[in-house]
Amino acid sequence: MSINVTALLKQYGEQKAVDGISFSLQKGEIVGFLGPNGAGKSTTMKIITGYLPPTGGSASVCGFDVAKAPLEVRRRVGYLPEANPLYPDMYIREFLEFAAGMHGLGKGASARIDEMILRTGLTPERHKKIGMLSKGYKQRVGLAQALLHDPEVLILDEPTSGLDPNQLADIRRLIRELGENKTVMLSTHIMQEVEALCSRAIIINKGHIIADGAISSLRQGASGFIQVAFAEETAPADLEALPGVQKVTPAEGNAWRLYTADPETVRKNLLQFALINNRNILSLQSNSLSLEDVFRELTN
Predict the structure, then answer these.
(1) pLDDT the model gives residue 222
(2) Measuring CA to CA, how many Å separate 285 from each of 221, 229, 263?
(3) What pTM, to 2 d.p., does this model score?
(4) What are the chain's domains?
(5) ∠ at Cα 178 (50, 159), nearest 5°?
């Protein structure tokens, strides 16, 4: 496996930023690593990339322990941190040449830099100093340096921050292409981004992993709701008593929202309820939760 994290712990005094988490990522996966601010996302990513030592547990990349073989890990990881540290007085190509030298790319560096400038959409700005670039183009420079040494694993912390819609589409396309033969771990607060790019999501909250699975499974496992409207007055207690209903809240008119993890069962029970109690159903509508709804439900 490309990334393996086992009982990982990071503690600052009495505070546990990461509290005994475990997960693994395989080659060819694009995985969303999600959580509210302060949940432990960036701390975990920094440990995996070797920027922070763990307090306990272990993390490995392509079989190399981050604590015991940090240089081997860094050779295999491309990292775009949230802060995206760049040298504003350097020209784009100058900065990428500097990064190529740090990676020891040698004679192939110039061609590789040309390729990364092209693939990350930096060509129109390639003659500018980094300090003259917009935030979106600075993100592209950071992504170009993360890809420069052709790493097996990509750790991207808020990679599309500051991009306009056109830039966003280009970078999403690039990340999808990279995910075909690399492992991509992606952190973002934009849930639509995760749904567009990732097949799996790991959700962390207060240092603990609270969900890990395919996005479709996470959405199916969370509580959606059915909205039903009756022609006659109906007591919410009668609806709460139906098997499969978790809670009932009022909607407009004579409508009610019935929250459930099993909408199909609740639909059948509603129809039976209406038949037995001589109720006329005016409307019946199922609503599945989005990933953003699931995220809010889990982290609240």
Answers:
(1) 61
(2) 19, 9, 10
(3) 0.79
(4) 3-213 (3.40.50.300), 222-299 (3.30.70)
(5) 60
